[in-house]
Design a protein that fits this description.
The chain contains four helices and 13 strands. The chain is α+β, with helices and mostly antiparallel strands and 219 residues long. It folds into two domains: 78 residues, no CATH class; 114 residues, Cytidine Deaminase, domain 2 (3-Layer(aba) Sandwich). The protein binds zinc ion.
Length: 219
């Protein structure tokens, strides 16, 4: 078969993020390997769209990133989308501890990270080093975690202001694979305001449900 490229750097990029057409039968060892990988991502091109297949030890994401093509393609289907937390849901008591921490920092903004250890399946919370905190601005650093531990959630507050993703948040989240959460109106007796999204593949995807167990909230 003729190779796709004679350029070594280009070949390395294509090997790292492969794109496979789905055979008409639907079955493909190469696409199965992409789905079974512990970490990595690639694309499956079908007669009904283009699927990003992204894996992390804690996340299995199959996300259609193009609408069905009007052109006829003699390929199989890309299959159904999915977004599965392989680490399971985060215990509710950690959310309560994080909210208490965010409230204790009022009127300033504050932040927290949920870390997951793939060896023992345990979650923990880390409060980052904060370089600067005011009621409307927060500068903090993502913790460096050893191999086998993963930053699952990046959480920050907007103090008493509404929860939303600002342009700064968008820039911070652009290259990460993580769940991003913002809590606002932390002084509201009716409960805080929140915004959440899954950051993956350079996209911001809606979270169909809360990553915390026993937490009915979804947005
Ligand atoms: Zn923000």
């Amino acid at each position: 078969m003729t190779s796709l490229t004679d350029n070594q750097t280009a070949a390395a990029v294509l090997a790292a993020v492969p794109c496979y057409p789905v055979p008409p039968t639907g079955a493909s060892p190469a696409i199965d390997a992409l789905r079974a990988a512990r970490s990595g991502h690639g694309l499956a091109l079908g007669n009904d769209g283009l699927m990003l297949i992204l894996r992390r030890p804690w996340l299995a994401l199959d996300c259609a990133i193009a609408p069905p093509f009007p052109a006829y393609l003699p390929y199989g289907s890309i299959g159904r989308p999915k977004a599965e937390l392989l680490c399971g849901r985060i215990p509710r008591y950690l959310l309560d501890a994080i909210l208490a921490h965010l409230r204790s920092a009022l009127p300033n903004e504050a932040a927290a990270f949920v870390i997951w250890d793939e060896a023992d399946g345990q979650f923990s919370v880390e409060y980052p080093e904060v370089d600067c905190a005011t009621p409307s601005r927060l500068v903090y650093r993502t913790p460096a975690v050893p191999p086998g531990r993963h930053v699952i959630c990046d959480i920050h507050s907007h103090g008493t202001a509404p929860a939303f993703f600002s342009a700064t948040d968008d820039a911070d989240d652009a290259h990460a694979t993580k769940i991003s959460l913002v809590f606002g109106r932390l002084n509201d007796p009716a409960g805080p305001d929140r915004a959440s999204r899954l950051c993956a593949g350079g996209m911001f995807l809606p979270m169909p449900r809360s990553p915390f167990s026993g937490d009915g909230h979804a947005d």
